[in-house]
Amino acid sequence: MKTVLTMALALCVLTITTYAQKRDMKLEKILQKEIDGFRGEIGIYVHHLGKNTTVSLNGDTIFPTASIVKVPILVGVFQKVNQQQLQLSDPFVYDTNRVYGGSGLMQFYKDSAKTDLSTMVSLMLTYSDNVASIWCQELAGGGAEINRIMDSLGLKHTKVNSRTPGREDIWKKYGWGQTTPREIAQLMLLIRQGQVFTPRLSDKMYRYLKNQFYNERSLSQFPAHIATASKTGSVNDARGEVVLVHGPSGDFVFSVLTKNNKDQSWTRDNEAENLTRKIANTLWNYFEPKDKFQPYAPVL
């Protein structure tokens, strides 16, 4: 009952906040010009909390999450913590049968290596570890349980598809997970504002999201001393990122999601990744004109 009431309160707060938002037409025009000509589909959502202004360009369109799905998985794990079915200190033993390709370090663990839930959550978010993420999804009760939590938060398009019964066909279209630019930004904001389960648990989730190894995209476009929380996602034809920035003028959250990208390269100058950096730099210099950062350029 406590969890349901907490989620209901979070949804009410989110609805009130959304109602009062103002559309930033100037920024919208700047961003629209920047994405014109992108060879793929792109969606952007921006919310400056201090000004309570927003920009939404295809902000309610569904996109693949790729590894950004690990944010909903994080919430699923913490539901079990909230229900006292799991503790972050719980021990686990790694089995090499769990080996799964892609990003991450756990696939290189020795068989029977000992770990704990906190380490797995850290690997899932900091290094986007696929083995740890699949394990965390299981511990959360599976994709269907995580999807029920997203529904309770009003995030009806944010779903886990992989290894989720009944979602096999939609998995073929969107992959591991799906969301919209608006919803994934709202989920990050709910966590930041202490509105998921309890303020204490939200705070712990947020701390995990602040430690990012993959910092060469949007994070490279903010001064190093600025605190951020974020998650990237990448597959061949889709790149995305959600970021919450603690700027001098106030916090702002934004997401950039893409799909059906023509440039499917895995090089530093990938078109979608370059564009994401450019958007992040534009946002910083737009919101912080007195603290302009380096001109947009790919980081070496």
UniProtKB/TrEMBL annotation:
InterPro entries named among the record's database cross-references: Beta-lactam/transpept-like, Beta-lactam_cat, Beta-lactam_class-A
UniProt KW keywords: Signal
Residue ranges of every copy of the Beta-lactamase class A catalytic domain listed in the record: 43-258
Group of enzyme by EC: hydrolase
A Pfam family recorded for this sequence: Beta-lactamase2
Regions annotated as coiled coil: none
Superkingdom, taxonomy of origin: Bacteria
Annotated catalysed reactions: a beta-lactam + H2O = a substituted beta-amino acid
Signal peptide feature range: 1-22
Keyword Transcription: no
EC number: 3.5.2.6
GO BP terms in the entry: beta-lactam antibiotic catabolic process; response to antibiotic
A GO molecular-function annotation: beta-lactamase activity
SUPFAM superfamilies: beta-lactamase/transpeptidase-like (SSF56601)
Family note: Belongs to the class-A beta-lactamase family.
Protein name stated in the entry: beta-lactamase
